């Protein structure tokens, strides 16, 4: 299954009413663009996230493969493009709570692919019609839709991280302990797993090693929340600025409030830790890390609420 994002600004109402997507094959100068011809890659069952005025109002499911089709009469009024075009018939699923893309832009930028991605470096929509969406970004958008709308859209979730597989994995993990998970436990763990793995992927696009000591083997790196998952709201949980990539030792110290950081990035070490343990855990008062403006906001919370002075 593939995912796309379509900027329907001029034609959303007409296309939604008609239940289709349409793009011209070329403009009046005979030029063609990937953001039109990529329509040909949309196949039956693919998911297309809509954007209209910066918001996702609908999610579309392609009802059939893309076909060559003349400009539908519904679009005649717009008088913008040549006649020959590509068309995808699609089911429009309207969201009760629209998603404002820019509210999640940091994470979206970290998760979107390199090629034909929908947004540019500063988070503005690229000029054009249809763009590609990575599986990671699609899963992230599904997660947001679910959080904001309160209903599950599991049927669209990519096969790679299906809930069923995750439950099987959890049951395998806990099998040795004969633990029976009820539905609530399962929901919680699924959310945490999907969230954590997306969160880690997003962070790994920005950082590649422990922020403190430089351990760079991704198998050992932990995407640590600065403001913990349990006290964060849904947006904060998936905001990459609320993350620090840390090795297990440093994650453990940070997570439990034995270390924190000043606004200028200098480390704060709890007086509870004696000299010996500081050496063993590889920390000293000269450590300083880079913090973005948004990370500093979360770090302020950590310093005030979590740090054991
Ligand atoms: Zn480390």
Low-confidence stretches: 154-161
Proportion in helices:
25-40%
Strand content: 15-25%
* Structural class by SSE content: alpha+beta
Number of helices: 10
Oligomeric state of shown chains: single chain
How far apart lie the N and C ends?
51 Å
Query: How many strands, which pairing sense, and closed or not: the largest β-sheet?
Result: 7 strands, mixed
Radius of gyration: 23 Å
General description of the model:
This protein is of the alpha+beta class and 309 residues long. The chain has two domains: 3-134, Roll (ph1033 like fold); 207-309, no CATH class. The chain is 33% helix and 19% strand. The strands form three sheets. Strands 1, 2, 3, 4, 5, 6 and 7 form a seven-stranded mixed beta sheet that branches. Zinc ion (ZN) binds next to α8. This is HNH endonuclease.
Compact overview of the structure:
By secondary structure, the protein is of the alpha+beta class. Helix content is 33%, strand content 19%.
Keywords:
single chain; 309 residues; alpha+beta; ph1033 like fold; 2 domains; 7-stranded mixed β-sheet; two-stranded antiparallel ribbon; 10 helices; elongated; binds zinc ion
Write the layout of secondary structure elements.
Elements: E1 3-7, H1 12-18, E2 20-24, H2 34-37, E3 47-51, E4 55-62, E5 67-68, E6 85-100, H3 105-111, E7 130-133, H4 135-149, H5 163-174, H6 183-206, E8 222-225, H7 234-238, E9 243-246, H8 248-255, E10 259-261, E11 267-269, H9 275-280, H10 293-306
Parallel strand pairs: 1-3
Antiparallel strand pairs: 1-7, 2-6, 3-4, 4-6, 5-6, 8-9, 10-11
The structure holds zinc ion.
């Amino acid at each position: 299954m593939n995912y796309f994002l379509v900027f329907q600004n001029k034609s959303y109402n007409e296309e939604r009413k008609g239940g289709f997507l349409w793009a011209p094959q070329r403009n009046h100068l005979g030029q063609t663009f990937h953001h039109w011809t990529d329509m040909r890659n949309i196949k039956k069952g693919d998911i297309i996230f809509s954007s209209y005025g910066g918001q996702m109002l609908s999610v579309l499911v392609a009802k059939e493969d893309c076909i060559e089709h003349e400009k539908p009469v519904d679009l005649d009024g717009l008088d913008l493009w040549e006649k020959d075009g590509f068309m995808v018939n699609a089911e429009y699923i309207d969201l009760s709570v629209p998603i404002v893309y820019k509210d999640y832009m940091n994470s979206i930028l970290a998760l979107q692919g390199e090629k034909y991605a929908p947004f540019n470096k500063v988070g503005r929509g690229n000029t054009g019609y249809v763009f590609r969406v990575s599986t990671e970004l699609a899963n992230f958008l599904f997660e947001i839709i679910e959080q904001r709308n309160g209903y599950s859209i599991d049927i669209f979730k990519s096969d790679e991280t299906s809930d069923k597989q995750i439950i099987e994995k959890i049951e395998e993990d806990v099998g040795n302990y004969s633990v029976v998970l009820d539905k609530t436990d399962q929901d919680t763990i699924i959310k945490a797993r999907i969230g954590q793995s997306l969160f880690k992927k997003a962070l790994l696009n920005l950082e590649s090693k422990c922020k403190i000591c430089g351990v760079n083997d991704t198998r050992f790196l932990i995407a640590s929340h600065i403001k913990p998952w349990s006290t964060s709201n849904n947006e904060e949980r998936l905001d990459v600025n609320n993350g620090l990539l840390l090795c297990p030792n440093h994650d453990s110290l940070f997570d439990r409030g034995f270390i924190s950081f000043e606004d200028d990035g200098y480390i704060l070490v709890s007086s509870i830790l004696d000299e010996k343990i500081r050496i063993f855990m590889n920390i000293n008062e000269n450590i300083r890390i880079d913090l973005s403006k948004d990370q500093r906001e979360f770090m302020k919370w950590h310093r005030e609420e979590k740090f054991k002075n």
